[in-house]
Amino acid sequence: MKVEERLGLLFKKQGWTLSAAESCTGGQISHLLTTVSGSSAYYLGSVTSYAVSVKEKVLGVPPEVIKQNGVVSSEVAAAMAEGVRALTGSTFAVATTGLTEGPDDHYPEGTVWIGVAGPRGTNTLLYQWNKDRKANIRRFAVVALRFLEKNAISLVNS
Predict the structure, then answer these.
(1) Angle between helices 133-156 and 3-14 (to 10 degrees)
(2) Domains in the chain and their CATH numbers?
(3) CA 82 to CA 21: how far, in whole Å?
(4) pLDDT at position 104, please?
(5) 158 pLDDT higher than 80
(6) pLDDT tens profile 103-121
(7) In sequence order, what are the residues at sequence separation of 6 or more whose Cβ sits closer than 8 angstroms to the Cβ of residue 47?
(8) Which residues lie closer than 8 Å to 51 by C-beta, 6 or more apart?
């Protein structure tokens, strides 16, 4: 069973809702989630915040967080997840910010920071896997959903 299907079963069973804030995955997480029949019962929507201005104005990422840490950072991934969770009122939110091609001053190509915000706070994960742009986007989206699943299951098991 695919991760998006497992998440669907879990979120329906628990009565939870979900939202996403995507940068480097460009809507791939939303695409995967909405391929599951009945996902409208728990998936509220997403913000594809490719531009820094959208991260700041829509998701509420403080400009100083971006300036101090860079767009590709744990702090920005966390702020994006928290921002979309607050915006939508969802139980959980997942966010991605990274480099699907080309390096920056801090990280090589194929780097993503994933943030998951939920009832117990926010966690982040650094993941690196460098293939071509499309493969990176697909892989980053699946890894983000698996990280979300791990965080959600830990709430159930506590």
Answers:
(1) 30
(2) 3-156 (3.90.950.20)
(3) 9
(4) 81
(5) no
(6) 788 888 889 999 999 999 9
(7) 20, 21, 22, 54, 58, 59, 84, 87
(8) none
